[in-house]
Amino acid sequence: MTEFLIYKLILVGSVFGITLFVAAYSTYAERKVAAFLQDRVGPDRAGPFGIFQPLADGMKFIYKEEIIPVVSNKFLFILGPCLAMLTAMMAGVLIPWGDTLIIGGKTYSLQIADLNVGVLYVFGVVSIGVYGIMIGGWASNNKFSLLGAIRASAQMISYEIAMGLSIIAFVIMTGTLSLGEISAQQAGGVGGDWNMWNVVYQPLGFLIFIVCAFAECNRTPFDLPECETELVGGYHTEYSSMKLGFYLFAEYINMFVSSAMISTLYFGGYNFPFMNDLGLDHNTISIIGTLMLFAKISFFIFFFMWIRWTIPRFRYDQLMNLGWKVLIPLSVANIFITGLVMLLIDKL
To answer: What sections of the protein cross the membrane (predicted)?
Structure first.
């Protein structure tokens, strides 16, 4: 029991540290990708090739003057960014970061917790994140912040419906809500035992899910809650110092977790092609699988950034029309199509 608790604590600490590290250096990668797409150099002063820029940014946030508006609700003003950061960090505990490791004859899972309703847990935690934005925007007692918070809550609620409906079709197909089982079902990827990744069976569901993920993360072209040209800075207009840093950092953590969810649900998770034909021992395969999962996550993080610096943002009416009049009907149609296909398969 003691060994199990120590292992879980090490795993929790590792996931926590990796999440913070990836989120921090996503800010660096964002600027480098933007610079590449715009034929610029990007950050290059803080260390070789600017690799210490995230550390410099973190120190700047810590040492900046902290201003809390006199007319704000101080308790809620502080609670908002804390809640946004907390909910962003909580979602990663159910991601299967790899297969099992065998150490000293005992088997250890590279997943902190594997609930039989894991997908629902992640959805529930992510949906709470909107409260952090809403509370922060309202507590600021600023009309631009309030408008940004209202936009954020309306946007997230609208796109959560389409995302949830896309997952219903996914669950009909896989028959489980456990992220561990979903990853295990895709073992072998597109080779080995010829188990296909779920994106092959659910291409429309994947497309709906990734569009909704952009909206949930408030990423361009769905960054209407911030929208500097209209709302100054949106829901975090009045924030400074590390409280502003928490809001900005939570966005990158959400992007990391969303990329991990997309990789796990639709692209095999830690599985990779021909993994069962390499002839390597179990632990080596598990380590390679973990590296492959992070390679997939890195690709989707790059995809988030690529879209941001390529496509302009929607008008707000276009955003709502896409969510309610396009994605939700497509999600419902996907459920019927998936149900019909599964019924035909059972009949055969």
So the answer is: 6-28, 75-98, 118-140, 161-179, 199-215, 244-267, 287-306, 326-345
| Angle at alpha carbon of residue 291, lines to 290 and 295, rounded to 5° | 120
Count structural domains, the chain. Answer: 1
Sequence-ordered strand ranges (E) for the chain: 101-103, 106-108
**CA end-to-end span of the chain, whole Å?**
48
- Within the chain, what is the greatest distance between any pair of CA atoms? 69
Q: What is the pLDDT of residue 219?
A: 80
Backbone angles phi, psi at 106, to 5 degrees: -110, 145
Q: Give CA separation, 345 vs 92, 175, 337, 341, in Å.
A: 34, 14, 12, 6
66, 243 in Cβ contact below 8 A? Answer: yes
Q: What is the Cα–Cα distance from 275 to 280, expressed in whole angstroms?
A: 9
pLDDT at 336: 93
Nearest to 255 by CA among 219, 307, 292, 222: 219
pLDDT score, position 191: 46
Peptide bond into 43 cis (omega under 30): no
What is the domain range of residue 343?
Answer: 2-347
Q: Distance between CA 232 and CA 146 in Å, rounded?
A: 12
| pLDDT at 232 (0 to 100) | 65
What is the rounded distance in angstroms from the CA atom of residue 263 to the CA atom of residue 292? 10
Predicted pLDDT of residue 318: 87
Q: Residue 317 has which token pair?
A: 């009416």
Distance CA 102, CA 279 (A): 17
Low-confidence ranges of the chain (pLDDT < 70): 1, 188-195, 225-233
pLDDT digits (tens, 9 = 90+) for 291-318: 999 999 999 999 999 998 888 878 888 8
- Could you tell me the CA-to-CA distances from 132 to 83, 90, 119, 292, 309 in Å, in that order? 5, 14, 21, 33, 26
